[in-house]
Amino acid sequence: MGYSRFNYYGVSYGTLLGQYVIVQADKHKSKLRSVILDGVVRPDVDFNLAAGHTISYALRNVFHACAQDQECSSTYPKLEQRFLKIVDQLNQKPLPLTLTIPSSKRTFTAQLDGNAFVIGIESYLARPYSGETARGSSLPKFIHAASQGDFAWIAASLSDLEPRGAREMYHTVLCARAKSIRVSPDQVLPPPYPQLVPLGIREAEAVKKACDVLQVELKPPFVSGNPEIPLLVLNGSYDPVTP
């Protein structure tokens, strides 16, 4: 693009790209001045397979924070138990849920099971105590509502069905770096809720299917480099992907 110098800011999956940018910085004319990695993806862990682990970590932090807050704990008691009970009940008996395709406004009925429920609340984990923002009220309030049989709030999140971004670029990078996966989520992450393990397995299988189709050339295992480049690393306790 003609820039002589640039700064890199990456979030979540963008932090994986950022680590590759750092290593390859000396191979390009434009000088990499500094890097911010926000919510870091480890190159040696399959973060899709780890989805159950990372979401569990974020949720436990939410439940702990609510339990330590007098107003939250009194308004939404036993939040963790309520959440797990909802997931179990939905897995045993999924509920019909009306979703709306954003572009056409067409509606259809889907089945809300435990996995879908977890996927639906994942986006709210970025702002678990968001108040009356664009993402709605707090996550504790939503989980409490679900425990009372109210799932209307989750329809908006699950209706986000039209993919955005360069999905095949995303898959190409992950597939090419498959040799970098050296440790399992169980080795480096806190244990997940057993109910959430299937979520990670499903996500990893979806990426594997994409890799089978793309058949990209495998790159050597990732090795970090260029430590002289200024780097700021940020991570959030409620991040459901990269704790």
Q: Which key features would you list for this structure?
A:
2 domains; 5 strands
Mean pLDDT: 89
Order of helices and strands: EHEHHHEEHHHHHHE
Q: Largest sheet, order of strands side by side?
A: 1-2-5
Largest sheet: 3 strands, parallel
Question: What's the number of domains?
Answer: 2
Measured distance between first and last alpha carbons: 33 Å
Structural class per helix/strand content?
alpha/beta
The number of strands is: 5
- Beta-strand percentage? 5-15%
| Count, helices | 10
From the spread of the alpha carbons, the general shape counts as globular
Query: What is the helical fraction, as a range of percent?
Result: 40-55%
Alpha-carbon Rg, integer: 20 Å
Q: Stretches where pLDDT falls below 50 for ≥5 residues?
A: 130-137
What does the model show?
The protein is α/β, with parallel strands linked by helices. It has 2 domains: 1-43 and 222-243, no CATH class; 51-180 and 195-219, no CATH class. It is built from 10 helices and 5 strands; from the N terminus they run βαβαααββααααααβ. A 3-stranded parallel beta sheet has the order 1-2-5, with helices on one face. The protein has a two-stranded antiparallel sheet with strand order 3-4. Helix 4 (79-92) packs across helix 6. The longest helix has 18 residues, at 51-68. The protein is globular and about 60 Å long. The chain starts with a strand and ends in a 9-residue tail after the last strand. The model is unreliable at 130-137 (pLDDT under 50).
